[in-house]
Amino acid sequence: MSFHFQEKLPIPAETKKRYPVSEEMARKKAERDGEIRDVFTGESDKFILVIGPCSADNEPAMLDYAGRLAAVQEEVADRLILVPRVYTNKPRTTGLGYKGLLHQPDPEKESDLFAGVLAIRKLHMHVLEQTGLPTADEMLYPENYWYLSDVLSYVAVGARSVEDQQHRLTCSGMDIPAGMKNPTGGDLSIMMNAVIAAQAPQSFIYRGWAVNTDGNELAHTVLRGATDSNGNTIPNYHYEDLAGVAELYAHAELKNPACIVDTNHANSGKRFKEQIRIAKEVMHSRRHNGDIRALVKGLMIESYLVEGNQKIGQHTYGCSITDPCLGWEDSQRLIYEIAEQV
After folding, report:
1. For a tag site, which of 55, 211, 268, 305 has the least CB within 10 Å?
2. How many Cα atoms occupy the beta-carbon half-sphere of 293 within 13 Å?
3. Per-residue pLDDT in tens (0 to 9) along the chain, 342 residues
4. Are 153 and 83 in contact (CB under 8 A)?
5. Cβ atoms within 10 A of the Cβ of 130, count?
6. Which residues share a beta bridge with 178?
7. Domain that holds residue 155
């Protein structure tokens, strides 16, 4: 047998009991969740930015970043809702090397999943506790969602996971927005099918239990660009792309039509500075077309304290160790510019 069972990890209930959410934190989260829900249901005209580092690799820099974001949030609160990306499961594309905070609380040491489970819960809690901002994470492993179910306010399903049935079914039991990215090949029907599955009531096996869900009416699409058979990137954030998604929704019997545009990844060709231009183009498309304005509820932006990225072991504080990100100065300026265009 090739499986080597190392240790029994604590179940989510034990972890939540060990690190409980305070009444004040629960109140803050419920308040912010309501504001975010209102955007997706169309009751609010505010615009959402899921913004932060490609990978939340360490707590001090992530809390520093989130604290700066919270200060900006106060200035743009009438127009924007800022949701920090606290992506704790983010691996390198090949799955080799660094696999995210969950696997490696210290990127320079070997995998320690027990410590990782505790580290990711504490990080999300500390961001919420210290800044009052809700947090977003990518659901790489559906069974691990329950460790964070009481602290997350937004969940993304990545391009390589969106076709997986367990991801879709797990999202159907959430009461927060779940963003379904288009797959790396770009087939939008796969993305739409994921939303259909997540919005529907489901029955399935989850963490050893037979469960039923009510369906998640906040499940929605995320455009992140695609890659062709030769490895060339194909953006899908242009006006015609957004109009096409609006048309797909018009023919689908789905609640709360909504789309988030990922400004990095295949949309930017991983040229992180292009995120600035892409964000402005999407905002222009919203101003030009009422259907697009109603559909596009926000943007995903990869941003950190120091621009670019670095190799593990270089120790540049607040610089990404996975995909390159915008630096803080450019990010802050872009947030203000987006607020002016909402």
Report:
1. 211
2. 11
3. 688 888 888 999 999 999 999 999 999 999 999 999 999 999 999 999 999 999 998 999 999 999 999 999 999 999 999 999 999 986 655 555 677 888 888 888 888 888 889 999 999 999 999 999 999 999 999 999 999 999 999 999 999 999 999 999 999 999 999 999 999 999 999 999 999 999 999 999 999 999 999 999 999 999 999 999 999 999 999 999 999 999 999 999 899 999 999 999 999 999 999 999 999 999 999 999 999 999 999 999 999 999 999 988 888 999 999 999 999 999 999 999 999 999
4. yes
5. 12
6. 155, 219
7. 12-341
- Using an 8 Å Cβ cutoff, are 16 and 150 in contact? yes
Answer whether residue 41 is part of any domain.
Answer: yes
Residue 3 within a domain: no
**Strands 319-320 and 135-138, bridge-based pairing:** unpaired
Give a yes or no: residue 219 inside a domain: yes
Query: What are the distances in angstroms from CA 1 to CA 7, 9, 113, 139?
Result: 17, 21, 21, 28
Q: Record the tokens describing residue 197, joined without a space.
A: 């599955």
CATH number at residue 253: 3.20.20.70
β-bridge pairing 47-52 and 80-84: parallel
Q: Is residue 216 part of a domain?
A: yes
Using CA atoms, how far residue 95 sits from 100, 229, 241, 322, in Å, is 10, 20, 30, 12
